[in-house]
Amino acid sequence: MPHTPPSAAAASQPHDAPGLGARSVHQKPGPDTLLATHDLVIDIPGRPPGSPLELTVDPGQCWGILGPNGAGKSTLLQTLAGLRAARAGTIKVKGQRIATLPRAELARRLGLVFQTHHDGFPATVLETALIGRHPYLRPWDIETSEDYARARAALAEMDLSDLEGRMVDTLSGGERQRLAIATVLTQDPSLLLLDEPTSQLDLHHQVAVLNRVQSIVAQENRAAVLVLHDVNLAARYCDHLLLLFPDGQACWGPTATMLVPSALERLYNQRLSVGEVDGLPVFLPRNE
Q1: What are the C-alpha distances in Å from 153 to residues 66, 126, 185?
Q2: Which residue of 37, 201, 233, 276 lies most exposed, with the fewest beta carbons within 10 A?
Q3: Each residue's pLDDT tens digit, 128-149
Q4: What is the Cα–Cα distance from 122 to 208, expressed in whole angstroms?
């Protein structure tokens, strides 16, 4: 069933009217589809099922997930990665049910950056980045020179080359976040699942990280799904958006049809002012 972006103006305008966003139409997975869900309902205790998700993520796409605190954004990302059980529905990665894939094979197909990071044992920055190569190693194998080269290249992309010998527990929050992203780049999956990748980053590194993700998606025939809190970054970097509402309702589609002020105001329970910079919309909260 198609889903329409909830809107404060929905009562006075038809759901498919210009300015309210397009209907969320399920696109059938193709032979190159990286991730597909069917009737997916994430499991949040005590909350009604809400909208079953029919998502299709293809190579070259960058999806953003927007929603207020508690809407289920991180839960959804962990469910897509196979780390949490869904309440209902199925998830396929490159055409195979996620539950049937061995963990190492799944890790070669998708990589997840968590919202928070916990280090299980003392390690250097380089040793941590090398964890991304573990899905490609057999038991008792050691990393090759190529593995080290991949890890160092990823550290360089995240502006961490000078820190490769530092212990992880001495890093700042922003440096630790960039290391998590470097580790998943070392992993080299086809699909990136990034939970708030710009958290704790300064403006320069926010742009650098999202530029790199955009480059990977555009040039390397991969895809990314990003949980973001900044609507303006979503407008700049994502070509598709999923809006998650606190009651479990959802709508999704191309960014141009999802960034509708009335829908975003309902999403965040916040009045917005809209401007334009470099041909893109800019949303600012209104103090009223």
Answers
A1: 31, 11, 9
A2: 276
A3: 999 999 999 988 889 999 999 9
A4: 28
